[in-house]
Amino acid sequence: MEINQYLDSTYLKTPEQSGLTEEQTFEKVRELTDEAIAYNFKEVMIRPNYVKLIKDYLVSKNSDVLVGTVIGFHEGTYSIEDKLKEANQAVLDGVDELDYVINYEAFKAGELELVKKEFVEGTKLGLDFDKTVKWIIEIAALSDAQIANLTTNIWTWAQENFEEKDFSRIFVKSSTGFYVTEGGKPNGATFEGVKIMLDNAGKLPVKAAGGVKTPADAEKMIAMGIQRIGTSAAKALLGEGEAGVGY
């Protein structure tokens, strides 16, 4: 199985989170990019402030590796206007894919119209610029019923507002990898959570982010039907090196 083209190789820690300087953090991002080029990964998933530098770097290397970034990260509670502003800047900087954190707290509070509005407007912005859009629902913050309900709503809203040809570019994604759980519970993709997403996403593709640690995990996720895997240990999923504890 060719796992590499399923992999979105990810580095999203800020200098404050990693204890590194700004320069050292960028070097981490560039090393991630060099690795993605060498192993022909699908994408590098990085913070918005690095998009232009890394896109230019990939162009200079004549690489087909995509650049993705996160929007409204990681809490998802940014206003719709702020998310659209951030996404638009990423587009101007050359991004290929936009991974929005959906406002799952608003969803849990019953503010469905707000969540629908940000989904429709955020997705439209991406599709208008021919970008792939992914919606992170943060499954560790949701019950099984909420995972099913939110995924179903996203599928319904996609059908109501976009054409079938667009569905392959509207993903439902499991996790940010930064949600803090209690009692050692996983904060990324789980087989159980991803199955619920797959069962309710209709024709929308699903991305499993965080929690996929071994080649066997990756192969099982792919066999289940996921289209992408977000990982900070992409080489480990190819059987080279070991996965760390974080996303």
Automatic annotation (TrEMBL):
One of its GO terms (molecular function) is deoxyribose-phosphate aldolase activity. One of its GO terms (biological process) is carbohydrate catabolic process. GO terms for cellular component: cytoplasm. Keywords: Cytoplasm, Schiff base. InterPro entries: Aldolase_TIM, DeoC, DeoC/FbaB/LacD_aldolase. Gene3D superfamilies: Aldolase class I. It comes from the Bacteria. Its EC number is 4.1.2.4. NCBIfam families: deoC. This is Deoxyribose-phosphate aldolase. It comes from Epilithonimonas zeae.
